[in-house]
Amino acid sequence: MNRFKIILLSFLLVTTYVSQAQTNLLNAKTPQEIGKKTEMQKVADNDEPLEYGYIDDRDIYWSKVVWEYLDLNERLNLPYYYPIDTMRISSDRRSLYDTLLRGIKQGKISEVYDDSYFTTKLTYQEIQEKLYRRDTVPEGIDILNADPNADISEYIDIYNIDSEHIEGYKIKGVWYIDKRQGEMRFRLLGVAPVAQDVQTIGRDDIGDINEKLAIFWVFYPDARQVMHDMKVFNPNNAAFPISFDHLLNAHRFSSLIYKEENIYGDREVKEYVKGNSLFQVLESEKLKEDIRNKELNIWNY
């Protein structure tokens, strides 16, 4: 981690801690009450995710399913990455990855799959197997060969994928034009954390492996309550944090479209724009522009 990232991380951790201290700050009679809502506040908030309205298929003038990649190195996407150190903050502040994983572990999120088409379901145990690896170094193997009952715990390397290892998210959603309302809308369908395959971390015997994989796919409508309960730091007003549900449904992130549904079996951009990253980015921007133009075209005669 370079110096800039260390400084940025320290700043965000401090601001995050301060943000938690703002809730109920003016009404607290003891330090323990800071950061906790009173019963009156809970009743007044009516704090529930906004329900999706029913959309009849006959009301959809046009729609397009797209897959986007959200890079956590971009500044606009930092709220989805931090905080990665959870020792100094309250339990209702976590990164998006920790929020998803904890929701799955607690059984609050049950619709978890291995692919973006939601066909192969995953259990929490199967997910854990993707996040964890134990390797015995050659010295430990030699000791075991000499004495099968020897203690080789110090010769075992353990690799885990944590929040800091998440490099981005894959987002699946549908853009559609509601002809009854006469406007373009976005509906999020799935989200998947992306990281390097744990089986390749720290290994020199398999060459330079840079491929990033989606660890699991969450069918988003099933996770909305968990996403709503977890709050994100609001730099404009620390007393009113924003939920992950608000951010994601409002499409408040920077992303590139890497795939759209098409006649060619939903092929990815890199499959037909090969070997040139700049042209792939330009193609992604073209796909975005085509979607924006759809709404404009319905008002042209």
Task: Write a compact overview of the structure shown.
This protein has 301 residues and is an alpha+beta fold. It is built from 10 helices and 11 strands. Helices cover 32% and strands 21% of the residues.
Describe the structure.
With 301 residues, the protein is α+β, with helices and mostly antiparallel strands. Strand 5 and strand 6 (183-196) form a beta hairpin. The chain has helices at 3-20, 39-45, 78-81, 96-105, 124-131, 138-146, 220-229, 244-249, 269-272, 277-297, and strands at 60-71, 112-113, 132-136, 156-160, 168-178, 183-196, 212-214, 217-219, 231-232, 242-243, 256-260. The chain contains ten helices and eleven strands. The strands form three sheets. Strands 1, 2, 5, 6, 7, 8 and 11 form a seven-stranded antiparallel sheet that branches. A two-stranded antiparallel ribbon has the order 3-4. A two-stranded antiparallel ribbon has the order 9-10. 22% of the residues are buried. The protein has one domain. Mean pLDDT is 82; it is low at 1-21.
